[in-house]
User: Fold this.
Amino acid sequence: MIALISGKLAAKDHSGTVVVNTGSVGYRVFVSLNTLLELPEPGEDLSLFTVTVVRDDAFHLYGFSQTEERDLFNLLVQVKGIGPRVALALLGGLKPADLKSAIAREDAGWISTVPGVGRKTAERIVRAPRTGLPFH
Assistant:
């Protein structure tokens, strides 16, 4: 598992994909909007905490500028119906502290304002702490 990637930012785009050049290999990394906004300009050094997701048809890296965002991503993908893309959308639509606060308040309505997150998905997220996920 790749837990951290460091190198030069080779490219970034508005869709949430960056390329990190680690010397002789460029890794494509999916990032949240919040992480994307914190990244330096192409050609500059950076480090991202990563989560590696291996599927039958793909090997994906998801990168985060902060461990708090990475840890919240790992918790979100444990909720039924939440995949990595929806978790990134949530983390791009809300700051980690705001998302945690909404979960603590059981405010599914506010969470569902994030594009791509419906009411039922938001309700599953706010119910998750009572089923054992340590969001608080």
Notes: The chain has a mean pLDDT of 91. The longest strand covers residues 45-54.
